[in-house]
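In the design runs reported in the main text, the only information available to the sequence generator was the tokenized backbone. The following block is the verbatim input for one such run; it is reproduced so that readers can re-run the procedure and compare outputs position by position.
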């Protein structure tokens, strides 16, 4: 599963999306069975990396007509966006707009994928600031692997699928 997205316009990206969906179903099942935390974290990271690979693959496909920009091995959306600053592509515009909107699941995915590269990324992640620091909740639904986190992963899968569909329709028009 460590191979790059295929060069095919659709199949490699759809394949990664399928792997993300399948791994998310496995993660939900493992959570219900109270699987070991390390296994759950690995499955969560796999979902994130498969989704991120879809988006990076889409961005790299938009640069296909510019082999000089593809010479480097850009693996982050920020690197691709920076190298393609002068390129006007509908796919890149969709991704750039999504990354710029902090409420978009693609922006969250970008941050999560990059944080997983850090040594401690698999063990913990930064928590959102709470409005009332004195109030202690019994269970935080946004905690890693809690219900809110799993829902966010599911909504990100849907968002990446929507992004691929939008990009496909724009490519046909373009």
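Verbatim output:
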């Amino acid at each position: 599963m460590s191979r790059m997205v295929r060069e095919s316009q659709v199949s490699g990206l759809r394949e990664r999306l399928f792997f993300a969906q399948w791994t998310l179903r496995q993660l939900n099942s493992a959570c219900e069975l109270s699987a070991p935390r390390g296994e759950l974290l690995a499955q969560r990271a796999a979902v994130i990396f498969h989704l991120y690979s879809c988006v990076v693959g889409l961005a790299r496909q938009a640069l296909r007509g510019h082999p000089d920009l593809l010479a480097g091995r850009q693996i982050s959306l920020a690197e691709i966006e920076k190298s393609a600053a002068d390129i006007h592509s509908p796919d890149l515009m969709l991704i750039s707009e999504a990354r710029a909107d902090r409420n978009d699941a693609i922006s969250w995915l970008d941050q999560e994928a990059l944080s997983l590269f850090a040594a401690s990324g698999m063990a913990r992640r930064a928590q959102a600031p709470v409005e009332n620091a004195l109030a202690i909740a019994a269970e935080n639904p946004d905690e890693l692997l809690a219900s809110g986190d799993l829902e966010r992963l599911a909504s990100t899968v849907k968002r990446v699928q929507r992004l691929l569909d939008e990009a496909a329709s724009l490519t046909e028009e373009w």
